Amino acid sequence: MMRVTATRPSGRSIATAAVLTVGLLFGLSATAMAQGPGPQRTAPPEMANLPPPEQATPPGGAVAQPMATLTVQVPVTSNMSLVHVGSSDSFAITPEGRQAATDLFEALGAAERQETAKMTEKAKSALAIYAKIIPRENYGGEYTALQWFADYLLADNAKKAEMTTEPLTNEFFKMFGGNNYQVLKEYLQRKYRLKDTGDEETYTGQMRKAYLEDTILFNNPRRESWEHTTELVSLLDLKPGAIVADVGSGPGYYSFRFAKLVGPTGRVIAIDTVAEHLKYVEQVKTNLGVTNIETLQTDGKTLGLKGRKVNAVFLCSLYHNIYAMSTAPERDSFVNAIREALTDDGLLYLADNGLVQPGILPYHGPYIAKELLIAQLLNYGFDLVRQHQHIPQRYLLVFKKRPDNQAPAPIPPGAGFGPAPGAASPAVRP
């Protein structure tokens, strides 16, 4: 999980396709330049279909060729924001969440002291609270991982063995559950302030808490239950021998899955800004005998590949931060690095969180309308090849980089765009 440190752009708009005008009542016009990176400018709806300006004649008499312009409209069908990157709903501490953490912490202590009755009582109390608050407060967050540990405490030996059969889950358990759950207890103390650790307000203490929190969220043994990870991975076209860049790899949840798909002749490059995550990946590699993963730490502005080419770049639940929190130069650098890294037939996979209308699913966390990403990536020279919505709260967009000086490919049906103002369909202007 790459932690993006960026300055939020000033002004009224932080989104490429967002125009704060009365046009919001009817739709957002996104004008995406087909060639070249750089900051995108959004035209108001009433200007979307004006003819292009006259061509300027540069010195020497050569006529500058205008860039192809794609004008699309993003429908607004509810009062929800089209992009939300706040983390309060994913990481917030609520009274009931703190009580469940307290019960789990006490159950862990009782297990260490072999006080079976108290362990059972506290673990069941934690489970009862999580059953109530997961749909309301933290669906897809850390609660299901903590719930998993409470279930583990109550399981018999055969069930415990079954729960840790999967190798990556077993590595996760060894990290948090080893030595009488020492690291899990540390995390509960730090996150929920159950006990002073002495460095809570220091940079070191904050980074330690963030690392543990990210690892629990990323490698949650019950992530499959809400994300349907297996189905998502099956949608990727990763063949044996392929080279894949897992950008924002965190502690390797996807990296190890990709390693199986590309096989011994392929390679996975786990890229992250957090050194501790990459150290964890290296340790798990050693423990499991995996030889086709390498780790690479970057500053988050480039991929750090230094001219190496890859067949695929994968980002999961990360690009919403790039879209909404990066400055234009930072975003230009990052997306250009992806373009440079991909082979001519390489693919960019963006898995991110979509808008979930109230009443459909109790998802809580950052999200962004997929239309905004599609429009911005068009500006950076990527064409949408296909898309999937395998669960209500997560979509997958597949892009291919566009050759220089080539017009944008038609947007596949079902991308969610409405017609451009005054036009019957999304229009490409030369």
From TrEMBL:
Disordered: annotated span: 35-62, 407-430
Domain Methyltransferase: 239-352
Span of the signal peptide: 1-34
Keyword Signal applies: yes
Biased composition (Low complexity): 418-430
Entry keyword annotation includes rRNA-binding: no
CDD domains membership: AdoMet_MTases
Keyword annotations: Signal
Superkingdom of origin organism: Bacteria
Pfam families in UniProt: Methyltransf_31
Entries under InterPro entries matching the protein: Methyltranfer_dom, SAM-dependent_MTases_sf
Protein name from the UniProt record: Methyltransferase domain-containing protein
Species lineage: Bacteria, Pseudomonadati, Pseudomonadota, Gammaproteobacteria, Candidatus Competibacteraceae
